[in-house]
Amino acid sequence: MKLNERHLMQLAAVIDAGGVSEGAALLGMTQSAVSRSLSMLEARVGEALFVSGRRPLQPTALGNQLAIHGRAILTASRRATDAVQGHLKGTSGVVRVGGVPFFMDALVSQMIAEFHREEPEVTVHQSYGNLPELVSALDAHLIDLGIVPIGSTHPGSHYDFTELLPGRNVVACRVGHPLLRRRVPKANDLAAYPWIAPLPGSPLMSDLQMILMSIGVSDLNIRYAGGSLMSVVNFLAESDALAVLPFSVLFALRKENRVTLVPYAIPQPDRSLGILRRVDTQRVPAADRFALHLITVFENLRHVIKRHESAVVWGG
């Protein structure tokens, strides 16, 4: 015997509401339609579902038992409706975001936490990669958006890029570094110290080479390479080595008071950090909501960083 799930839902609503008209109103149906459904259900099971002549309605033992299953179906239906509405509004679902490691660790991970406080029903899956890997992940539909720095190497018309922050690099060192004793450091001062190499494939590597060329150093004096952001910060904080870092990343680390910038003006990259997405991929509403969150937070951050940058007396 197969019972109609809608009939079970209506039975549960009538019992819980205390009457046919009340149950019908709860379901947004007419009283006559619900009455027909109950009659069809009783005919199907071959037994009364309500005690005859009792007012208000009193379910039989079988009526109560079937109502338990009706409530489960009704609850599942409402949850499914909520899930659809949440998906369409972007307040539930999964966002898959990939990004360059230093920016993700220093800036975006905190923004993900802030987003989760606003949208607790959205799950964010984060991955790492540089521009080539993230473009491949977008093409394979493995991520919804990438957080990448892009300049002249824009991947093409199949991709939409929304700028978050203009590119700005600085030389970083530990707090208390001997270089900071000089009011205005010179190029030969920077050349006297070893350097930390960025992660393989990072655009910071070409930036480092450009910086060293500008200060007259032909060979890289590398003493540490390939570390994560935390590893680089730990090495910087415990040595006299120097590293090239995005200004926004160093700004995000300022409260730890372990590393700081060397006020020496260096050549700047012609690129910006932003959100990369494929234009021909169906948009995920939760990803759109997350992207809007990033744009808003970075817009506020841009002004704060600019004021901090303007307060520095740059040498070089």
TrEMBL record:
GO molecular function: DNA binding; DNA-binding transcription factor activity
Database matches in Pfam families: HTH_1 (PF00126), LysR_substrate (PF03466)
Listed InterPro entries: HTH-type_LysR_regulators, LysR_HTH_N, LysR_subst-bd, WH-like_DNA-bd_sf, WH_DNA-bd_sf
Native source organism of the sequence: Devosia equisanguinis
Signal sequence region: none
Keywords, comma-separated and alphabetical: DNA-binding, Transcription, Transcription regulation
Superkingdom assignment: Bacteria
Residue intervals of the HTH lysR-type domain: 1-60
Entry-linked Gene3D superfamilies: 3.40.190.290, Winged helix-like DNA-binding domain superfamily/Winged helix DNA-binding domain
Entry GO CC: cytosol
Descriptive protein name: HTH-type transcriptional regulator GbpR
Protein family per UniProt: Belongs to the LysR transcriptional regulatory family.
